Amino acid sequence: MTRSIKDLIGRYQSLEPSDRKIKRAIQQAVKSICAVELPVTHIQIQQKTAFLTLHPIEKKTMFQQGPLILKEVEKILGSPVITILK
């Protein structure tokens, strides 16, 4: 009847991070890659899509660096939680 710790926490490994953690990861990635300060209040998460409210010039820069931002978010969170930036 002894269970290993891996068995006990195994069911929690597939849980998605909270929206707050995802938003902070996006904020960090955008800041490090695009050098743009993005307030967390300008990020909305729906399913696996992040909607960002930015100035048009900042948005253009951010979308050019989109794949790098997504990779950075994946690196921060440890899994591909966001697949699309809009």
What is the topology?
Layout (H helix, E strand, L loop, with lengths): L4 H5 L9 H16 L8 E4 L2 E4 L3 H9 L1 H12 L6 E2 L1
Parallel strand pairs: 2-3
Antiparallel strand pairs: 1-2
Helix pairs in contact: 2-4
Short characterization:
The protein is mainly alpha-helical and 86 residues long. The protein has 4 helices and 3 strands; from the N terminus they run H-H-E-E-H-H-E.
Query: Can you tell me the residue ranges where pLDDT is under 50 for at least 5 consecutive residues?
Result: none
Radius of gyration: 16 Å
Q: So how many helices?
A: 4
Number of strands: 3
Helix content: 40-55%
Q: Report strand %.
A: 5-15%
Which term fits the overall shape? elongated
Largest sheet: 3 strands, mixed
N to C succession of SSEs: HHEEHHE
- Could you say how many structural domains there are in total? 1
Supply the helix-strand structural class.
Answer: mainly alpha
**N→C terminal distance:** 50 Å
Q: State mean pLDDT (0 to 100 scale).
A: 83
Write down the oligomeric state. Answer: single chain
Placed side by side, the strands forming the largest sheet appear as 1-2-3
